[in-house]
Amino acid sequence: MSLICIEGASAVGKTTTSHEFAKRTNAFIIPEVNLLFERPKVESKTWYIERQIERWLIAQEKLKTYDTVILDGDIFQLLSYNWCFDFKLYNHSLDFISGFYRNEIKEGRIRFPDKYFYLYTDKENLKSRKEKDITRKRGNFEKHLEIVEPHQRYYETLNYFIPDYVELINAESIQGNITSISENVCSYPVSFHSVDLLDNMTKWLANNNA
Question: Which of 45, 48, 52, 139 is the most exposed place for a label (fewest CB within 10 A)?
């Protein structure tokens, strides 16, 4: 049984790939926060990050009955996105986010997934796919286009600390994505300590600009 995460830029095909993969295998999808939970009118400082913890807990339950559980979007998203936007989102500093995740890892309420699959394509393809997809509004799409390169660099950096941990997939087609994921889903996850990976990434984020 494997807990994987599919990540990538907005409109790259994460959700479509996840659903097509689940149709063909014994897999369960955990949607992103904004699709899984209703936002409260008055949102606490930690509401969003707490929902990421909830997603992980749901995933643990589903792993009891499914071969693969897919996180459609990273539970550690606050690290990558806030770094890309110079930690100006949600008024959260790197120390605050890292400290929150670190405590949750030590308490056994979260960990990094067994493997990441990062879908990528060029900006023109992203724009084209966004225009063709009338099922989703994709708020702040243009803003997300601005961070395509640093966002990918964040996930490439994970491979520096754990080789082959992130599978980079040139998202030319949904079938191609599914084939790459199927060939690289590991029944025996790489052994590593989530606290160590978090600490290494925190140091890297503190010393590198997006």
Answer: 139
